[in-house]
Amino acid sequence: MDQIVRVSDYLQENAESLVDKIVEDALKNVTFEISPEQFEIARQQNAEFLRMMARSFPATDEEAGDELLKWAEQQGESNSQNMEEFSKSIEPFAQNRLVYSKHIAQVALDLEVGPVQIVRIMNRFNYLLDVAMVQSIKSFEKHQNEKLKERQKLINELSAPIVPVQEGVAILPLIGIVDYDRMTYILNYVIPKIPKMEIDHLIIDFSGILTIDTEIAQHIFTLHNVLQLLGIDLYFTGMRPNITMAIVQGNIDFSDFHTFGSVLQALAAIEKKK
């Protein structure tokens, strides 16, 4: 244990100078341009990693992993800001492992550490490096998933606008594919806005929809009931034969619904009703 502590102390005290050598060797494996700012960030991150790793040598794997997990999560979030840069950063991973291993093993040999203790040190290093990589990838995936959700929400907002066309009358044009997520968005975010818009009649136009399944057809039935409870008359226009078939297959009774071939026909019916 004394030999391991000696290596730990040396690495912590000389982290900066040792990292300079490690980064210099690691850059030989990099195939893309690195700015001075990126170089300095990489240098600081590697020095921090080296110190953490050195502090962990006398500890157990579980104790060593706790601090590293927090650090790796932060690095993963930082690197995930750009997918291309993140993918490039892990390309030389295997070569960088060898660079680290060479320098750490040399330090241990210079300090006359025995072979058994060197093996223990290298095992700890490889364990922590794997933990760091796995956590960084998880953080990256989490960040990317959050970005995808934000983009999907924006797409839903743009693809389901409520357009007022007359006093008390608005159109909700549906375009593209109506799936479960999009219908859920309409029910949870679009419909609650309608009472504030002083709308008495809402036309949902399906002419831009290619197809829906029976589950979505059931949600349309729910949509009708919700708006009815709010005192809003609902009109369906532009339903294609395949959409009608999905409704029939879902055993949904549309006989009481207002359906029209076009928006103009629905507007004419609303005008007569006023």
TrEMBL record:
Residues 159-270 form the STAS domain. CDD domains: STAS_RsbR_RsbS_like. It holds the Pfam family STAS. This is STAS domain-containing protein. PANTHER family: BLUE-LIGHT PHOTORECEPTOR, RSBT ANTAGONIST PROTEIN RSBS-RELATED.
